[in-house]
Amino acid sequence: MNMRTRWIIVVTATLLLTMLILLPRISEAERFKWLGGETALAANPALNVSPPQDQKGDITVVASYHNDTSIPLRDMKPQPALSKGQHENENPKIPNKHKDSPDPVVQDHFGDLRSLMTVNMPSPILNFNGIGFPGVACNCAPPDTNGEVGATQYVQIVNEGYQVFNKTTGASVLGPVGITTIWTGFTGPCETAGDGDPVVLYDQLADRWIVSQFAGAGVPTDECIAVSTTSDATGSYNRYGFHLGSNFFDYPHLGVWPDAYYMSMNVFNSSGTAFLGPQPFAFDRAKMLAGQPATFITTGITGGSTEEVYLPADLDGSTLPPAGAPASFVEFPGGGSFRVFHFHVDFATPLNSTFTLFGSPASAGFTVRSAGVPQLGTTSTLDPIADRLMFRVATRFFPDGHESAVGNFTVNSNSIASVRWFELRNTTVGPVTVFQQGTYQPDTTHRWMGSAAMDQQGNIAVGYSASSSAINPQIRYAGRLAGDAINTLPQAEVTLFAGTGSQTGTNGRWGDYSDMTIDPVDDCTFWYTQEYYATTTSFNWRTRIGNFMFPGCGGAPTPTPTSTPTPTSTPTPAPNAPGNLTATAVSTSQINLSWTDNSGNEDGFFIERCQGNNCTNFVQIAQVAANTSSYPDIGLSSNTFYRYRVRAFNSGGNSAYSNIARAKTPNH
């Protein structure tokens, strides 16, 4: 064989090898195209390394099937009322997998707590009626009351109506009109088959409004999202229709983040009879602000039917997260911990997007509320909606570097429906911790369907419904100042509005959520909207809107709150380290910790854990009060080693760590 022949053979072999390598990539590139606005872009295992640990599902990209920019809403003809059945879309239940346990943070020792209370929870500044039954385009119940405050306006949205108010006077600026008015001339289900579960947000980073509701002929399969072109909610909107799939996509809740509008969904089969799992979505914020064709990225259903549902973080305040920081999704702690997922989305290279478990600090124990809430004058009870977090997970960053995310859900405390509120720290940069949590049950009145937010000072307010066999449902709120004792809402409760009737004949469908938001201009004024009844009857709900502000808010943000805010003339010495830490497995999912308290000046203890026989990557999972010497760690995996360490803290600093204790949960 001469040299020329050998050279031809070598070149031919090289070309063949190159084609074998490139053809799969070319084939994969063809899959990147969108056919009819709905073809998925899915990860190809042959082209990618193994996904990160806890990666959920395959990455899918879906384009809006239609988008445009509307004429101003104020120039549109309001959509007429439609003839509908009396019940709004069904709200399928999430399977209850929680193991009830004693509540260590319930605030029911009110001989002690009332000594902390003063009548300084601020009274309402404005207090006025919002949209009422029969609403607009929906002779239905419940209203699913939601609202948001912007630069100059307050917008309320219910099933299936929309109204704009002057935020200074409370006077109506537009409406109420049907939400589908926004999609006039858009065609498709967004215009003709809007089904409710509405959400309105204010993107204060861009001074724009976001309005959404799901849609579909019989089954909600689409999400309709409109982004205003200015800060005027009565102006024009960039409108989008997205087809999510053929399942029953329920309970859409959105959050604003710098790189995307994030949404969570509870997904059921098309008949709504089987829970399939939660699903996260990220919509291309930059394209939607510009009115350009946009896409969403999703991982598909995560975790399956055994996973608890979650909500995305919704950004408050003027301090931004670190550049490129992923959005957090916080999971209902039915499994014993607040599992926090990070959704890193990359619209330029979608296959770089990830949805991963970032932290899972333990929640204090609680009992799920399954019974209905009683009312005055009727045997009809109201659904506590206790199988999920309530809207919103309000998240803000402070100039001193810490981050807080506040939220709530409903629990059963001493046979009373009660609000469990919480503040997580550092859900974005980590380590994720539960800074404080508490169950608010000051008396035998039931409190449920809450919403929580935090102002620029770190003060927290929680609004909710309140009812009992002795009163009609009322709208109330309570709160805490940043310097109050942690784990408490000691600022005296205020009634925003006392209903004069109870609800009957609606299968207990009181509502699925309410909304507490913060004025983006002063970053101090809380706005709350919720429902009530004027007379005891079926399908005659009313809604109320009110705002208030803690005295002194508006200056420089309060430094990071501690549990010992009282200054002293000499520095407080750090506490001694706890000792004799032991860990004992008591079941396949629980390890009990015990230690010796060697200090008399601690404010509490931080408990840290890592997973593995010789692990070293400890993460804080809990914070307990002073003089505590034990802790039950629940929601663990069976047949698994865990290592623990504990340290005390006070205003003078942290102690050294205790010894490390290890235990392994049994296999069965």
Written overview of the protein:
It is a single chain. This protein is mainly β. Helices cover 7% and strands 41% of the residues. The chain contains four helices and 41 strands. The strands form nine sheets. Strands 3-26-25-24-23-17-18-19-20 form a nine-stranded mixed sheet, with no helix packed on it. Strands 1-16-15-14-13 form a five-stranded antiparallel sheet. Strands 2-12-11-10-9 form a five-stranded antiparallel sheet. The N and C termini lie far apart (70 Å).
Helices, strands, pairings?
Blueprint: H1 3-30, E1 60-63, E2 66-69, E3 106-107, H2 110-116, E4 127-129, E5 146-149, E6 153-158, E7 161-166, E8 172-178, H3 189-192, E9 194-203, E10 208-215, E11 222-228, E12 237-243, E13 248-257, E14 260-268, E15 275-284, H4 285-290, E16 295-298, E17 310-315, E18 327-331, E19 340-344, E20 354-359, E21 373-375, E22 378-382, E23 390-397, E24 403-413, E25 416-425, E26 433-440, E27 446-454, E28 460-468, E29 471-480, E30 491-498, E31 515-518, E32 526-533, E33 541-548, E34 579-587, E35 590-596, E36 604-611, E37 619-625, E38 630-633, E39 641-650, E40 653-654, E41 661-664
Parallel strand pairs: 3-26, 17-23
Antiparallel strand pairs: 1-16, 2-12, 4-33, 5-6, 6-7, 7-8, 9-10, 10-11, 11-12, 13-14, 14-15, 15-16, 17-18, 18-19, 19-20, 21-22, 23-24, 24-25, 25-26, 27-28, 28-29, 29-30, 31-32, 32-33, 34-35, 35-38, 36-37, 36-39, 39-40, 39-41
